[in-house]
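Please check this protein record:
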Amino acid sequence: MAAVLGPVTNYASAAVPGWAAQAWVIWPVFAVLVAGSIGLLLWGRHLDAAARPPARLAPVSRLARGQQASLRPPHVQRVRGREGELAVLAGMLRRPQGRFAVLCAVGGMGKTTVAAQLATQAEAAGWRVFWVCWRDGAELAQQMVQAALACGLPEAELEAARAGQASLPDVVWRQLGRVRRWLLVVDNADEPHEIGPAGEPVADYRGWIRPHGRGLLVVTSRDGSEQTWGPCAQLLPLEPLPVRPAGQVLLDAAPVAGTAEQARELAARLGGLPLALHAAGTYLAGPTSRYRTFAAYRQALEQELRFLLGAAHPNASHPQVARAVVRHTWEVSLDQLAGEGNALARPLLRLLALLAQAPVPLSLITPDLLSVVTGHDVTAVALEAAFAGLHRYGLLGLPHSPGSTGPASGSSEGAQVVLHPLIREINAVALTAETSDLAVWHRALAERLTTAVHEANQRGRAGWPAAVLLAPHLPLLLDYADPRTATHHRTTLNALAQVLQKAGAFGAARLLHERVLDVETRMLGPEHPDTLTSRNNLGNALFGMGEPAEAVRLLRQTLEDRTRILGPVHPDTLTSRNDLACALDGTGEHAEAVGLLRQTLNDRTRVLGPEHPHTLASRDSLGLALDGMGEHAQAVRMHRSTLDDRIRVLGPEHHLTLLSRHNLASALTRAGEQTEAIQLLRQALNDHARILGDEHPHTLASRDSLGLALDGMGEHAQAVRMHRQTLEDRTRILSPEHPDTLASRHNLALALTSAGEQAEAIDLLRRALDDRVRILGDEHTHTLSTRNALETALAMSTQRPQSRWWHWLLRRNVAAGGG
C-alpha cells in the first residue's frame, strides 16, 4: 500500500512523473485503489458482525441458563374471570402506541397470574417474551441487559455503557426501540422508588421503566398510584373475582369437593380473592385435610379462620413465601410502607379491621384515637399519609369512586374507605396475636364512636350523612362494652337510631334497634321497660321500611305488654297505642285505627295537655285515619287545627309542621279543594326539599301528593311527569316493593289513564296489582283500589267514555288512594 501511496502523494507535487501523463496507466491504478478500499470496508463489517450477537432475535431458551433463568415466564393453568384485562393487554401488545401497562392491586389479587397468562398467549403468537422478577436494582439491570442482548444489542454499545460513556438504561431502551414483537414483564415491582437508577422517579421515564419500546412493557405492582407511574402508564387495577368465575377456580382445584353452587357460596365468603381461593382449593384437595367439602370449609371459617387462612407460616420472613400465604401477603406491603417511614400504616389498618364490614367515614378515625392505641403522638399529617399509603398499596379502597386517586378525593364531608372482607378479618386476627391488651383498643374505639354519634346529633340535618355511615359500626359498642358502660352505649345506639328515622334511613335504624333489642332481651328480660321501648322502636322502623304486617304484629304485642305492665295511661303505653294505630291506618285498617286514635288523643290531652307534641301527633294521625275512611271534611278541619298549633308550638319549619301542611293539602285534594291543595303542596314540597333534602321520604310523599292534585285539576301531562320521577326515585331509594313505591306506580297509571295513555297505564296497573296481591294481600284496600283502577282502564281502552262518569271513576280511584 505504501508503494501505491507514494506516487499518489507525488501526483500532488510540482514534478509529475512521466508515466503519469499516460491516461491508460492512470485509470487502471485508480480502479485498483477503489476496489481495495471497498474490500477493506466489507472485511471490517464482516469482522464486526462475527464479534456480536446477530440482529435477529435469539430464542429465550438460549439465554435461560444460570442467572438468566428468570427470563422465562412462569407456567400458569387456565385463568378465570380476567378476560377483560387480558383483552386490554392483548390490544396493547399489538399496538403499544407509546404506552406501557401496570397490573396493580393489593397482594393476593392475581397480578402475576394475569401477566403470566398474557406471556403464554404472546409466546403462542410468536412474540419473544422476557420475564424479569424484581428483587433489587443490580439484578434488574442484569436481566434488562440480557433481554436487550436477545433483541440484538451490539456488544460495543454495551461496553460503552460499562465504560461510563453512555447511560445503561438508555442503551437498553434504544435497542428495544429498534425491534418489534416482544413482551417484557417486570413482576413484583412493589417498590418503584427503588427501581432506579438512583434518584430517578419512575414517572420521569429516564430509568428502567419506559414507554419507548416498540414492544410492550407490563409491570405488576401493589402500587396503583397514577403519580408513581406517570401519564404513559395504562393502569389496570384488578378487583376481586365475580362469584361465578371465583367458584370455578375452586372447582378447578377441588373438583369433587361439592356442587357449583356450594363452590360459589364459599367463593363469596372468601370475597373472590384469588390467593384465598387457591389456598382453599389446595387445602380441600389435600388427602389429609380435615375438611374435604366446600360447605364444610365455609362453615369452619366462621370459627377457625385463624387456623385456616389466618395460620402463620414458619418461613414467612422469606418474601416469596409471604406473598403466597394469605396471612402474610399483606404484611409485605405494610413492611414496605414502614420502610418508607410510614410506620402508622400498620396500626391504622389493624384499627380499621376492628370496625364492621362497611364503609368507614374518615372523620371517625382521628389522630387522638391512633395516639391512644399506639402510645405515640400522632399528627393529622401522619394519619393522612397512612391512609394514602394504604390506598396506594390497595389495602383499602373507596366506595363508589373507582376512578379516585386517594382517600381524600372528593368532598371530605362524606369521604370513606372500605376494606376487603378477608383483609379485615386477617388483620383482626393479626392484632389479636400481636397485642396483649385488646381492651385498650376496644375502649378507645367505643369512646370515639360515642363521641361521633354526639357530633352527628348536634349537627341536625347536616349530620344525617355521617349518622348513616356510623350506623353499621355502632353495634360494636354492645360487643365491646363492659357492664359499667352497657346502659350508656345502648342509649347511644337508640339516639342515633332516632336520628336515622328522622332522616328516613329506616334500614339503618332497623339494624340498630334489632341489636339493642337482642341485647336488652338477654340482659334485662323481655318485659323490662327498656326492652319494650326497643321493641316498639323496631316496630316503627319496620313500618318505615315497608313491612307493615310484621310492624303491626310487633306493635300490638308491645301495646298489650305495656298495658299490662305499665298501665293503660302510662305515656309509653299511649305511645304504643298511637304507633299501632298509625301502622293499622297504613295497612288500610282505618276503622280500628280511628278507634285507637280517638282513645289515645283523649288520654294524651288529659295526661300531657292539649298542646304537647305527642298530643298534636295523635291529632295529626287521627286526621289521616279519618281521611282514609272517607271523612274528608272532618279530616280537613283536624289537619288545619293541627297545622296552626304546630306552627305556634314547634315553629314553621319543624319537620312535623311540614308534615302537617302536607297532610292538610292531601285531605283538601280528596275533598275536592284542588286550588288550595296545590298551593299548600307546592309550599310543602319546596320546604321539604330545602329542609330535608330532595330524596327524603317526606319530600317524595309531597311530590306524589302534588301529582295527584294536579291530575285532579286536569294537568295530566304535568302529573305524569311528576309521578314518573317520583316512581323512579322511590324505586331507587326505598326499593321496588316498598308500599310507597307501589303507590307511585298506581298513581302514575291513573295519571296516564287520564292523559289517554291506556296501554302503558294498563301495564303499570297489572304490575302494581300483582305486587300488591303478593305483598299486601288480595283483600287489602290498596289492592282493591288498584284492581278497580285496572278495570276502569281496561274499559276505557275498549269503549268511548261518557266524560262525567269516567272522570268520577278516576276521582274515586284517586280518593281510594294510591296508598
About this structure: Residues 410 and 597 are 48 Å apart (CA to CA). The chain has 38 helices and seven strands. The chain has a mean pLDDT of 84. The two ends are 113 Å apart (CA to CA).
